[in-house]
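@channel anyone free to eyeball this complex?
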Amino acid sequence: MLTLAFYLLFLLAFVVVAVYAERKTAAFIQNRLGPMEVGPKGILQTIADLLKMIQKEDIRANAVDKLPFLLAPIIVFLAVFAGFSVLPLNSEVAGSDVTGGLFLLLAIISLDVLGILMAGWASNNKYSLFGSMRSVAQIVSYEIPMGLSVLCVVIVTGTLDLQKTSFLQSGNGLINWNIIQHPVLIIPFFIFFIAGLAESNRTPFDLPESESELIGGYHTEYSGFRWGIFMLSEYGMMLLLSIVGTILFFGGWNSPLPNIGSFNLYEMTSGAIWGTFWLLFKSIILVFIQMWVRWTLPRLRVDQLMSLSWKYLTPLSILMLFICGIWKLWLIN
Amino acid sequence: MIQFIQIVFFLLTLIGVGVIVSTKNVIHSVYALALVLVSLAGIYVLLNAELLAIVQILLYAGGVVILLVFGVMMTRRGSGETLISESKNSILALIISLAIFLLLVYLFSNAEVEAVNISSIDQVKEIGVSFLTDHIVAFELIAFVLLVALVGAAYLAKMSSNE
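replying in thread with the prediction:
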């Protein structure tokens, strides 16, 4: 319960900062200045935008399918946010104690497809419908490589509990991280990261909402606060997948600093508050890489998207699953 | 508290079932089906069958329902027209469902099911081990059937794109 309350507050604060950070990153990559007007260096721009968004009229076209139209953003957000319930925060605060927490997380975030479909269908608009159909095709296809790459970690660690996965990586700083302790997990991490971009509908996989062809896709008809919930869920998904990636591959809440001789750097930077800091710090670096990718790569075509998932990522992740099995059975001991 | 949550999930299931049966808009009944499946998963969690709940969400709410919605969207006739299902043979349907209901009541009231305490065992591990030991034949057969279905679907898709 405590973890969930923390993550809700953190998510809200994160979105405000991340939107600003994203615009600044984009501006830097495109050699512009980005938001500069509100506050010093434009730092209050997101807050101004947020105030404007809340004041906007809640527009609902006559021909929409009323109840699904109103429920869709809430379902999308709930599906993403429910995923946070199984995440640990530090060595003392674990998430929900479900058998197979990781499995639950993958199951529950796949429900956001339902909300997206609802939004697209209820909007009664061809662009929205196209957007949500693309989104479903994309998310359903990329769930397979994502699930398989997560399974590689599960094979190596032998647990579905994210807190146990974190404990397995504690000890001597970054030497004990899964990705360094088990180098066979490097390729699964890249598969996980690419599939994660597709799951959160980010460029280069933002076909469901591609502004230039679909005017925003499934959230074309939404305005003001309801649109804001979609935005919140997108950033929530980015953060969620980054935290999961951190826990699975980069040591979770463990400090990256190793002990050097008698200088106990690892013990000095461990503990509840340090743990929370390291988890969120490493996750935010991953979020930054997601933004970086967004502003440097062009959008894929639909057929390229499908062939990337089915012809490259899925066979590769099945192969990696096999290799991880061999690694676990014979090479580790 | 747990009893209260159980009642809430139970009511949600009932509402969902009511909507599925009463609404004529096909897409609404699919959404209601999703509600029923997720509420059932909630009841499973309260009964300590966590793995079953997760599988229910993953396969039914995340898989089957999405497939249904996708199917409805693909077969939408024309544009701007809502898909309405007609109620035909309602008396026959009533008789059949009543018969199935009575049969189930009869079976369950006569069944002697031993209560097993599953809250203390590692469900994922137990199920995994029994899949690969006691039920290996069924497990492999299902895998084979799924493979055949996959190959068949790919073949059909290729055939229709060639024409």
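from a first look: The helical segments of chain B are 2-22, 26-46, 50-74, 90-110, 123-132, 136-162.
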